[in-house]
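User: I'm curious whether this sequence folds into something compact or stays loose and floppy. Could you predict its structure so I can see for myself?
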Amino acid sequence: MQFSKSTGNALHALIHLAHSDRGQHVGIKELSSSLGVSDSYLSKIMSKLRQDGIVRASTGASGGYELARPADRISFLDVIQVIEGRQQLYECLNANAHHHPLAEAAEWSEEEESGHPESKDCLVKKVMNGAELQMQSYLRAHTIQWVLDHASPGSIRGGNGE
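Assistant: Here's the prediction. I'll summarize afterward.
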């Protein structure tokens, strides 16, 4: 499993915005330069973040981007779901997984007893879903502010004239 470069760039851009002076808009040129990516590429990422209410954009000479909510209310999970999508990470594609002897012997949930044979879970999917829930919980607990609070001095590029 690997997150896209867009997710990494979105997180770094948000850290840059959170680290800049409060109320100061950061232009796309400054952001893209600090990340080493093109303006047009980063604009697409920032547009997704704006549409989801994570950043605000303003136009004009002093325009640019700022966080739309406090950094401690923007979790890594929020950003990942905006950029990567909200789909499940694992889909059981083994057609025989539901007919495996172990699956037949497993206890059925109320949903499975309701007469929906297609709802019998793939045994591998049960493990993968558990792992995904733990990862989501971890990512939900870590915010942009958490990164700022745990960064060593000088480890965050940009912002405040650095």
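Summary: Helices lie at 5-19, 28-35, 39-51, 76-84, 101-105, 110-113, 123-141, 144-150. Residues 110-119, 158-162 have pLDDT under 50 and may be disordered.
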